[in-house]
Amino acid sequence: MTAVIDPPRTAPAPDVVRRILDTAKSEGRSALTAPEAKELCDLYGIPVPQEGVAKTADEAARLADGMGYPVVLKIVSPQILHKTEAGGVIVGVNSADDVKSGFQTIMDRARQYDPNAELIGVQVQQMLKGGQEVIVGSITDPSFGKLVAFGLGGVLVEVLKDVTFRLAPVSRADALTMLDGIQAAEVLKGVRGAKPANREALADIIVNVSNLVNDIPEIVELDLNPVFAREDGATAADVRVVLDFEPKAKRYLPSQDEIVRQMNRIMKPEAVAVIGASSEDGKIGNSVMKNLVNGGYQGKIYPIHPKADEILGYKAFKSVKDVPGEVDVAVFAIPAKFVAQALTEVGEKKIPGAVLIPSGFAETGNVEGQDEIVAIARKYDVRLMGPNIYGFYYTHKNLCATFCTPFDVKGKAALSSQSGGIGMAIIGFSRSTKMGVSAIVGLGNKSDIDEDDLLAFFEQDDNTQVVAMHCEDLKDGRAFAEAAKRVSKKKPVVVLKAGRTSLGARAASSHTGALAGNDKIYEDVLRQSGVVRARSLQDLLQFARGIPVLPTPKGENVVIITGAGGSGVLLSDSCVDNGLSLMAMPPDLDTAFRKFIPPFGAAGNPVDITGGEPPTTYKNTIRLGLEDERIHALILGYWHTIITPPMVFAKLVIEVKEEMKAKGIEKPIVASLAGDVQVEEAAEYLYDHGVVAYPYSTETPVAVLGAKYRWARAAGLL
């Protein structure tokens, strides 16, 4: 399939846009009037009804006569954004007399609603008939910047909250995915005899709204609600545009080359200085030194201490400035009040990275102290990790730059956490499951280095195959999304976003803003960026462990082979929950499976071989599942029996897997083992040999397979 590339474009009539904005700014307004908003819509090809603004009742009647009945009357006032709440909207007006009385009613209601509001007049608008009501809009998120929204519209928009978001600017392909990204997507296709909505017309509006808000930074919220979507097109019945003229501070963002250069020196250093190194047990500086030494780090270690001559057999220096030669990273193990001075010396020594373990900064309310160290870092071009972190590991350099215990199981999974407690859970899980890691990184307050910096490093790190991240917020969500979109084409990126159960959306001037619950934005933008989202810490850890084990599937057809009907039902449910497609069994393949199972078993999908079958039945059905090219992944449901004990099952699975691998056939296989405690050893054996297996769970193995599939789809590999 050829990719659709949106043609280049030029912003229309910048002089007209400037005039509209300058007028609003000079009048101290934070919103455009309806006529101004219509003028912008006309410039950007957003269809709106015929309309005009009347300052008198007679003028309103003349306008209505000219465009034909019925019409809608709406108050025009810079101060009254929510017209319906003010009683400032009357629909279905069918005669000149009714227009005149409606004009007066609206003006009276508006004066009562806000006696100080400037009443410009009444907008007379052609009334639209028929079609599905949808909303198209935009908000400006503090982290992600401009977002475009699409959803079910009308008066119930904030009740139903059926809306989806994308980063602006959106492509036409993005716009079309938005139409399918709401729960009511089927309604747009026409239900109960209704005509389907014109998808191309809706996509046009979404793209044009995206262009509009992307061209004009001052627009912070925009609503087209409702948009009437019909078979022959789509028209926005009401337009609301909210402005903010305050200049926005730009975030410090080094170039990609600069990020990679400095991150490589920090993560893979040849020389490490420990500021606050100590010989005294129980001190953080002592733990860091011991971990560097006992972890097997082969680079140079320089303890920094104002009085000591030697620490743990290494020559100590009073300042990093006294160290001979280059230092790549300095690990801080001193109280917060001493960090600024020591960081200045790090900058003067031209050390590119500082790992700030100390707490006592923004997390305790000391924002000023954190701002001070960031300013020092900017002055000397030092990248800061932390503060308030446990440090980091990079196992392929045997580097344990942390006060936590050394970690020595090398592997391909890189993990990070914003929380120290979650970091300890990552370390414990990795050690318990023998999950090999390339890196474990604490980010803490994220005064400087954050997730997108790590992604830039892990993207080019040959020792990393999957990146799993815990975060409580994204300091620069747009930078992260751009990095994740790039990296996820090559390597899976898994994110556990804490705080997804927000109690409500922020206060907003538009319907779109009110719909933008923080987690809904994260959900849609992470998906748009190709990120695999974890719903729990257990998901994050299991995905990080399992995704690198599974080969990438070549298609969507999944088959379940189970020795227990009950497991088959639960595994099927899990497939639905994880977006997996159970293959509709072709007749010839159904016949082939039936050759190996008893008459009272069940082919189809799941393939139920029943629990009383010998090992050969498992072996034959699994071999068939791997051999047939129409099947792309296998889910195995094992039931503990005397005839086929757990380890017998595990070894035969690996035997068949290796037999097929020798023939060039590799497919993802996951397994659920139900039985007594012996299934634990069997599951471990399977996992160690490339089959993602779990005892006592039908949900987890399927979730891991689902995560692999979500990544493969987003990366365009299926």
Overview of this protein structure:
This protein is α/β, with parallel strands linked by helices. It has 5 domains: 14-126, ATP-grasp fold, A domain (Dna Ligase, domain 1, 2-Layer Sandwich); 132-243, 2-Layer Sandwich (D-amino Acid Aminotransferase, Chain A, domain 1), CATH 3.30.470; 251-388, 3-Layer(aba) Sandwich (Rossmann fold); 409-548, Succinyl-CoA synthetase domains (Rossmann fold, 3-Layer(aba) Sandwich); 557-714, 3-Layer(aba) Sandwich (Rossmann fold), CATH 3.40.50. The chain is 38% helix and 21% strand. The strands form 6 sheets. It has a 7-stranded mixed sheet, with helices on both faces. Strands 5, 6, 7, 8, 9 and 10 form a 6-stranded antiparallel sheet that branches. Strands 25, 26, 27, 28, 29 and 30 form a 6-stranded parallel sheet that branches. Mean pLDDT is 93; it is low at 503-508.
